[in-house]
């Protein structure tokens, strides 16, 4: 079995190093060890990750390919990796350069794929706060934690930070990650919505865990609110393309209005109760506003000014 692991990177040398060390430790106790190729695509025009990857090749456990993608944007990077996948590859996995997989990560994805005959399998990305002085409110508020499901739960879409899918799906879908989302993010939401609506099965693997490093630059109210705005904006924008427009407008205008109303009503008490409650109230407002933005075809340019965060 051949598996290609696709890694997008941009000016995160320490993150890429942690990730590659994690991939080097992958274990297979219940499956034959597959033939693994790791494809690293660097979006830095200065190719800052090239030397590291070249030095790593001599003692890395798996096959390693380094590529440069000068066109700025996450969609271009992911598509460049896919274009490199060997025609004989059976599965493609995606993981980000701010994540570290548990040693059983890939085997858990494979186990669930086989058990449920899934076309795509995804699992949890658990936040890890490396700094000992991480504000208590950021951890207690669970602002960096996504919803988890029982293993085997069917999904309508997923992200590309922790996912395994049959390579045949990539070959059959045509265009993969839409360049329209290159600077906003949400390219993975859009793609996997298409995958689901094309009849492919996406399932959850709760034991396929990766750990996401949360830097201090993200532990700010502004970052959390902007991420909430962007995610809900791109979701509404994508949803508008795949469902009847009247249905989407009714659903999202109602949901967006309700979120903003809840946020506004709870805002004053939240100010008195502390930072966790304040951020939660503001987040409802930003998420609601994001939905309206998406319905109007706009989204926050999340990747416009990123420098390794």
Instruction: Estimate the strand proportion.
Output: 15-25%
The profile of the biggest β sheet is: 8 strands, mixed
Low-confidence stretches: none
Question: Counting H and I runs of at least 4 residues, what is the number of helices?
Answer: 10
| DSSP strand tally | 11
Oligomer: single chain
CATH architecture of the largest domain: Alpha-Beta Complex
Overall shape: globular
Radius of gyration: 20 Å
Q: What name is given to the CATH topology of the largest domain?
A: Spore Coat Polysaccharide Biosynthesis Protein SpsA, Chain A
Task: Explain what the structure shows.
This protein is an alpha/beta fold and 309 residues long. The chain folds into two domains: 214 residues, Spore Coat Polysaccharide Biosynthesis Protein SpsA, Chain A (Alpha-Beta Complex), CATH 3.90.550; 75 residues. It has ten helices and eleven strands. The strands form two sheets. An eight-stranded mixed β-sheet has the order 3-2-1-4-9-6-10-8, with helices on both faces. It has a three-stranded mixed β-sheet with strand order 5-11-7. Strand 2, helix 2 and strand 3 form a beta-alpha-beta unit. Helix 8 packs parallel to helix 10. The radius of gyration is 20 Å and the shape is globular. The mean pLDDT is 92.
């Amino acid at each position: 079995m051949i598996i290609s692991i696709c890694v997008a990177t941009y000016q995160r040398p320490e993150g890429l190093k942690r990730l590659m060390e994690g991939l080097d430790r992958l274990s297979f106790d219940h499956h034959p060890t597959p033939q693994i190729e790791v494809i690293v695509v660097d979006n830095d025009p200065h190719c800052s990750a090239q030397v590291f990857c070249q030095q790593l090749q001599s003692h890395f456990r798996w096959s390693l390919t380094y590529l440069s993608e000068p066109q700025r944007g996450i969609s271009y990077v992911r598509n460049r990796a896919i274009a490199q996948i060997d025609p004989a590859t059976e599965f493609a996995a995606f993981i980000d350069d701010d994540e570290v997989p548990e040693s059983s990560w890939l085997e858990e994805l494979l186990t669930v794929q086989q058990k449920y005959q899934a076309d795509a399998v995804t699992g949890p990305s658990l936040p890890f706060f490396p700094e000992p002085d991480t504000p208590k409110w950021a951890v207690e508020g669970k602002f960096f934690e996504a919803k988890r499901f029982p293993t085997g739960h069917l999904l309508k879409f997923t992200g590309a930070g922790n996912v395994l899918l049959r390579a045949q799906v990539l070959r059959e879908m045509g265009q993969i990650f839409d360049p329209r989302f290159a600077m906003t993010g949400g390219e993975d939401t859009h793609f996997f919505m298409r995958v689901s609506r094309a009849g492919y099965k996406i399932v959850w693997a709760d034991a396929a865990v990766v750990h996401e490093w949360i830097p201090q630059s993200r532990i700010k109210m502004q970052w959390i609110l902007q991420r909430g705005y962007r995610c809900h904006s791109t979701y509404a924008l994508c949803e508008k393309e795949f469902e009847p427009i009247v249905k989407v407008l009714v659903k999202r205008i109602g949901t967006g209005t309700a979120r903003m109303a809840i946020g506004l009503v709870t805002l004053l008490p939240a100010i008195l109760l502390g930072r966790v409650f304040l951020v939660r109230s503001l987040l409802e407002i930003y998420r609601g506003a994001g939905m309206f933005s998406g319905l109007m075809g706009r989204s926050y340019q999340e990747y416009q000014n990123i420098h390794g965060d």
